[in-house]
């Protein structure tokens, strides 16, 4: 912290020196921010090919795991159908089949099928949909994700590169009501920043920390792999806490660890709209996401470690986020120390600046820097500038939440949706029913009808002694 205490300069300047001590006030932090912005500006989405290899009506199945879709599902489903996919699979639990079948019939019964699993468990629902897919490309979507009609062609364009295994998109928040609540605006701020971050990381080294589960596309051959299906549905933290959420993080790590490239289409043609919790339950969503991020990033950095060589910039951002909550909270601590020193006479080693000067300067700096970071959002919604102070407060709350999440990684409940039961019990029941066999059992059970690519293995073999083969 640079403290200007000369009587000839009666202004507290909350600015620092290069380093990680207090990143909120360092040249280092804002240098990297400028690099990120420059990379995001330089980023370009993949253009549509003249003669596409993949066509949505032949090669795309949309899988939507859900348990409580409402009327908003109709708007979302109509937007999916505008892209002309071959089929949409709605995967739900048995007791919800009736209501969801009614919703599907009201939209398009010829292209929407409703399948069920015995227990509500997102990963088991996704796996069930994978097994019933016969197209080359699977697109996972949340039941409230609203797409532009051009989304599928732009997503499929990325798969022209045979090394690409997964594709994501940029996102914006759609209000649940007539006006956005403060919680939705906070979520919109976060998504605006995220859109810049993923565009930058994609441009810098081709990686991304997470292909968001709100909408992401994958090659079916990767997900049909029995090793993937077993690992996906039998994923444990510390070997004993089974995970149900965090599916998108698992999928992203699988792409990296098995040699597949990823890409994100950050453009209006592929930008989806998604609703967020319009009340305090948004905080529970953020807590779940934060726990998933801690678990997945620590696995990527310290256990699997593929990200270090595949995507070093993404690895750097992960490391940065590990320290960020602690260093962020150090900022107010330093300011409090300066305020305290301001109450001590200069002759006794105190600072001459009055405490009000320090506090006002500090908050002025925060307002200026946070407003700068939110300019992409404020350009489209300038009326949200009044919520910048709320975003600043949320940032410090989020830092505390991240530390709390780190200390409670053993808690794997969903948090915001009723009906999501114990994943261990659900998986055990599925195993008993034979719906979720072990890798060896799955390989014996695979047939051309159940596994449409029996002769093709993903790029990046599970056996490191075998040469890599590209998808054909």
From TrEMBL:
CDD domains (UniProt xref): GT2_HAS
Places the protein is found: Membrane
GO cellular component, as recorded: membrane
Keyword Amino-acid biosynthesis in record: no
Domain of life of the native organism: Eukaryota
Keyword Transmembrane set for record: yes
UniProt region (Disordered), positions on chain: 425-472
Main location: membrane
TM region(s), chain numbering: 12-31, 322-340, 384-407
Keywords: Glycoprotein, Glycosyltransferase, Membrane, Transferase, Transmembrane, Transmembrane helix
Stored Pfam families: Glyco_tranf_2_3
GO terms assigned for molecular function: glycosyltransferase activity
Protein name stated in the entry: Glycosyltransferase family 2 protein
Native source organism of the sequence: Postia placenta MAD-698-R-SB12
């Amino acid at each position: 912290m640079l403290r200007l205490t000369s009587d000839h300069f009666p202004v507290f300047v909350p600015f620092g020196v290069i380093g990680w001590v207090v990143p909120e006030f360092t040249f280092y932090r804002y240098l990297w921010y400028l690099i990120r912005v420059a990379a995001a500006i330089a980023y370009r989405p993949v253009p549509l090919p003249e003669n596409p290899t993949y066509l949505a009506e032949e090669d795309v199945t949309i899988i939507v795991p859900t348990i409580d879709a409402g009327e908003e599902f109709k708007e979302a489903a109509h937007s999916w159908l505008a892209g002309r996919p071959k089929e949409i699979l709605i995967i739900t639990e048995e007791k919800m089949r009736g209501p969801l079948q009614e919703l599907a019939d009201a939209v398009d019964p010829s292209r929407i099928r409703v399948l069920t699993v015995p227990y509500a468990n997102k990963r088991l629902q996704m796996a069930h949909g994978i097994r019933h897919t016969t197209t080359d490309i699977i697109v996972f979507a949340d039941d409230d994700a609203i797409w532009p009609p051009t989304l599928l062609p732009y997503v499929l364009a990325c798969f022209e590169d045979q090394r690409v295994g997964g594709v994501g998109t940029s996102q914006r928040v759609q209000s649940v009501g007539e006006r956005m609540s403060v919680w939705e605006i906070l979520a919109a701020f976060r998504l605006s920043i995220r859109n810049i971050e993923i565009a930058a990381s994609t441009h810098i080294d081709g990686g991304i920390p997470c292909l968001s589960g709100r909408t992401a596309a994958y090659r079916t051959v990767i997900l049909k792999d029995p090793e993937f299906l077993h690992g996906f549905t039998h994923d444990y933290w510390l070997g004993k806490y089974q995970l149900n959420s965090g599916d998108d993080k698992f999928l992203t790590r699988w792409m990296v660890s098995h040699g597949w490239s990823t890409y994100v289409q950050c453009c209006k043609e592929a930008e989806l709209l998604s609703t967020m919790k319009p009340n305090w339950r948004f905080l529970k969503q953020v807590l779940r996401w934060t726990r998933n991020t801690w678990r997945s990033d620590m696995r990527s950095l310290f256990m699997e470690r593929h990200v270090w060589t595949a995507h070093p910039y993404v690895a750097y951002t992960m490391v940065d986020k590990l320290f960020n909550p602690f260093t962020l909270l150090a900022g107010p601590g330093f300011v409090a120390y300066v305020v305290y020193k301001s109450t001590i006479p200069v002759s006794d080693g105190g600072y001459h600046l009055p405490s009000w000067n320090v506090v006002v300067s500090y908050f002025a700096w925060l307002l200026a820097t946070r407003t700068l970071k939110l300019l992409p959002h404020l350009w489209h919604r300038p009326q949200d500038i009044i919520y910048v102070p709320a975003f600043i407060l949320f940032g410090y709350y989020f830092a505390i939440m991240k530390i709390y999440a780190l200390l409670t990684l053993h808690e794997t409940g969903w948090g915001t949706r009723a009906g999501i039961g114990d994943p261990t019990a659900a998986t055990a029941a599925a195993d008993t029913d034979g719906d979720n066999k072990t890798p060896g059992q799955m390989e014996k059970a695979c047939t051309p009808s159940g596994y449409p690519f029996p002769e093709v293995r993903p790029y990046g073999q599970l056996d490191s002694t075998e040469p890599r083969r590209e998808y054909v």
